[in-house]
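We were asked to recover a plausible sequence for a given structure. The inputs and outputs are reproduced exactly as logged, with field labels preserved.

PROBLEM: sequence recovery
POSITIONS: 162
GIVEN STRUCTURE:
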């Protein structure tokens, strides 16, 4: 096994700066969702996942798996969103046995608005400050990290909006 060694001061500084940048970006994105659409990051994740699904609906278990959330977390989130009129139970399969969850008209409208607003914030706080060369390097590096840590994950998440 290779010997573990500490980081050099400039490596620590790079790491701390990178982590700070991530936290600040996440904060700004979450503030934008709340300010512009009145939703949380969790609500946005559910809305976008359902918005991308065929028929704008899916089974709750599929939603849980897609979000990588525990089923209890999904259930609680869906209850809150159903109370706000954003999602509604759906039934499919023989005799309507399989219960799923789908976007209401209000949920579809909010999802579309939130996606546009979030895209604007991604552009404003992230993309606009990068040259095409920097963006290409960041993308390549990010893909390498994903492939190294979770090789199959990139294919499954390559079309995420968030």
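RECOVERED SEQUENCE:
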């Amino acid at each position: 096994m290779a010997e573990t060694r500490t980081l050099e001061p400039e490596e620590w500084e790079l790491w701390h700066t990178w982590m700070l940048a991530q936290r600040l970006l996440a904060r700004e994105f979450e503030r934008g969702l709340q300010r512009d659409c009145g939703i949380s990051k969790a609500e946005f994740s559910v809305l976008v996942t359902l918005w991308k699904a065929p028929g704008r609906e899916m089974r709750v278990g599929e939603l849980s798996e897609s979000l990588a959330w525990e089923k209890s977390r999904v259930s609680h989130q869906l209850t809150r969103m159903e109370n706000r009129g954003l999602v509604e139970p759906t039934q499919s399969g023989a005799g309507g046995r399989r219960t799923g969850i789908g976007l209401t008209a209000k949920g579809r409208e909010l999802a579309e608005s939130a996606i546009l607003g979030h895209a604007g914030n991604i552009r404003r706080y992230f993309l606009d400050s990068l040259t095409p060369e920097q963006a290409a390097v960041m993308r390549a590096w990010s893909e390498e990290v994903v492939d190294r840590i979770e090789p199959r994950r990139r294919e499954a998440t390559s079309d995420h909006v968030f």
